[in-house]
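REVIEWER CHECKLIST
Item 1: Sequence provided? yes
Item 2: Single chain? yes
Item 3: Sequence as submitted:
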Amino acid sequence: MDDSSLSSDPLVVLQDLSFGYGERPVLASVSLTVPRGKVTALMGASGGGKTTVLRLIGGQIRPQKGQVLFDGQDVAALDEAGLYAVRRRMGMLFQFGALFTDLDVFENVAFPLREHTDLAEPLIRDIVLMKLNAVGLRGARTLMPSQVSGGMARRVALARAIALDPELVMYDEPFAGLDPISLGTAARLIRQLNDAMGLTSIVVSHDLDETFAIADQVIVLANGSIAAQGTPAEVRASTDPLVHQFVSAEAEGPVHFHYPGPTVDEDFGPAHGPHARSRR
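Item 4: Structure as written out by the authors:
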């Protein structure tokens, strides 16, 4: 097998994967691939398993059935040292950034370099400043997280996520809580850094317009399985009622407003009213 065929292999593969929390199933026999060098968007209603997929890829949790393969390695089968090595090849942008509040911007970005490498201090300095420059915040290096805006904090977190030059960067709701300008900036950065650094990106997001604008493929998760998968245009054109409800932001459809439970009559009927005891 030549190098070109190797490079065309997907970086992440989920094979017949199932997972649940306690009695609640979240993913049921899900299979998907994440191609190298592309931006893959994971979308769907809240509670559909999107962040769970990121946690499975990172080895924070293990599948109850099936496999998670990262560059051909079964993540769940790795020992502690193997998992540590794999995680060095991944970057993670947590929802709302998750910066260390007692460290300044520079030290937040330097943290993974100090944790995972033995690089000399001058080299760490240069790398940190280069990553901050890539997100437009080299001049903010001495600021504390409390001194930067929400959009700036997200960019600092992005600089930290790419500090180790990972092959895969996972974004958990990178646009949540951002104003339109910051949102557009964050989306543009994800696309630009993916292409300039040769990354593979997985973006979990509910923001349709910005996510569809930067994604190469979109995967919609619903009811424990994949409801749609394809290019943004193909997903928008889907005739599946659930996918149509999601991309059209419709209140009524297969995704219900009410969580399953007793009927209204069972909870509020005559047997449960204020005079129920006197009638017994």
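Item 5: Key structural point noted by reviewer: The chain has a mean pLDDT of 84.
Item 6: Recommendation: ____
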